Amino acid sequence: MRSRGAGPIVMITAYDAPFARVVDRADVDIILVGDSLAELVLGLEDTLQVGIEDLAYHVGAVARARPRALLVGDMLGSPTISRRATRSAMRRSSYGRVLTVKLEGGRRRVPAVRAITDARYL
Known about the structure:
This protein is of the alpha/beta class. It has five helices and four strands; from the N terminus they run E-H-E-H-H-E-H-E-H.
């Protein structure tokens, strides 16, 4: 991983172990496994059609590549119920290498963030 001096942070999206290895060799800072998986890999019409299990499968594939980069898993539209958010984060953290999840929605997601951190799954 690059030094943490001033400069840009490099993030790229990966969906499988081979590409995660290539990306990691390029010395990126962050690898995101995002909901764009729906359209780019699964051939779905939009990101709303991808399921938690689909994303968890691909997070696991990237995690098994054991990248040095920080691995970020998408939380699929940022669940509105804290209990559901906790379950989603727990699934991702069970792969051992996912230390971060991405939520969208600003202050509305504070209860979800609290539930995740209080559960100590990340």
